[in-house]
Amino acid sequence: MKQVLLKKYARLLVKSGINIQKNQVLVVSSPIECAEFTRMIAEVAYEEGAKEVVVSWSDELLTRIKYIKAPEEVFNEYPEWQKDFFVSYARQGAGFLGISASDPEVMKGVSPERMAKWGKVSGEAVKEYRDRLMINKNVWCVASIPTKPWAKKVFPNLSEEEAVEKLWENIFKTVRVDMEDPVEAWEEHKSNLKKSLDFLNNSKFKFLHYKNSLGTDLKIELPEGHIWFGGSDYTPEGVEFIANMPTEEVFTLPKKTGVNGVVKSSKPINRNGNIIDKFSLTFKDGRIVDFSAECGSDVLKTLVETDEGSLYLGEVALVPYDSPISKLGILFYNTLFDENASCHLAIGNAYPICIRNGENMSKEEFEKAGVNQSLVHQDFMIGTRDLEITGITEAGEEIPVFKNGNFAY
Hints:
Elements: H1 2-18, E1 25-31, H2 35-47, E2 52-58, H3 60-69, H4 80-91, E3 95-99, H5 112-125, H6 127-134, E4 140-143, H7 148-154, H8 160-174, H9 182-203, E5 207-211, E6 217-221, E7 229-230, E8 233-234, E9 240-241, E10 250-252, E11 259-264, E12 269-271, E13 274-284, E14 287-295, H10 297-304, E15 313-318, H11 324-327, H12 335-338, E16 344-348, H13 363-369, E17 377-381, E18 388-392, E19 398-403, E20 406-407
Parallel strand pairs: 1-2, 1-3, 3-4
Antiparallel strand pairs: 5-6, 5-18, 6-11, 7-10, 8-9, 10-15, 11-13, 12-13, 13-14, 15-16, 16-17, 18-19, 19-20
Helix pairs in contact: 1-2, 7-8
């Protein structure tokens, strides 16, 4: 039975996630622990007409060794061949599938400064590739499968084997693979998300005001011409794809200088193999002016100090507290899942597609329109059962958007 579900999952990612086109190259970024499933992805992709499937393998334990043992100069320059790999395939119109399945604590004890330095160097090197994905020039999808360390973190009281099986069971639920026709189930899901998109895009809110009992009291200004997205995206040629599987969110961007107040995290985040938990951010005119964390404060510090843009927000996303993933009652320690169980924000880069004509704007035009730009984009969860969000129109009318953690309309 599990093999049947695995094949359905692989087919769903290739056909609905990437929506592979005939003679298109598929680039898969995969941990070595996920090799068996990655081969299944390749098999399905070729069956669906892919020209070639190319895999970029990663080994997080080897990466940990490198961070601890390698000389400092290794982190000063990104290898040209690695840059060429991603940029050249992007220019060819390849689709990119990323498998997100890291051990949430694999980088515990590793220098946050060294990791941040490498993140900045690598981000600058492959900026063209990342920019293309941010404006949907290439189809892309992020999905996940269990690894042993990750499964044990999620289900510490189970044996390794039981934890992996339990995580598989829940991943299948979140991506609707346990349904008879997952592709059709996703069509229905996209239709349901559109109801929220229509409400938000028609409302054209000027501000969103967040409040809950954790201490969040945050007012976010939305820029003129902002657009809410959710469910699926389209390339300029009209090819539909689903960037995140699972996804339960609708999202847009904030005005870079229009965020004021305090926001408290509601779930931990896994930042490159380190946990940041129970943290608070204070904003003034969009900029983070104060921050603290009970766990991972040094990692949070390197995150917000990556560049000028990492001191500002780039995404506003709404997810009902009663979303299917939230109802599972599981802390996944994986942003792909946890962000789809909770309203969230993102530190750093904004999606240019979320503002009218954003895919054609220059860097200067982004700045003028209030669109944040950064080398990082880190989602963090803020949703709670008692979260209240009020939308405020240009005319000053206040309309409930969230009440008791869920959409109010």
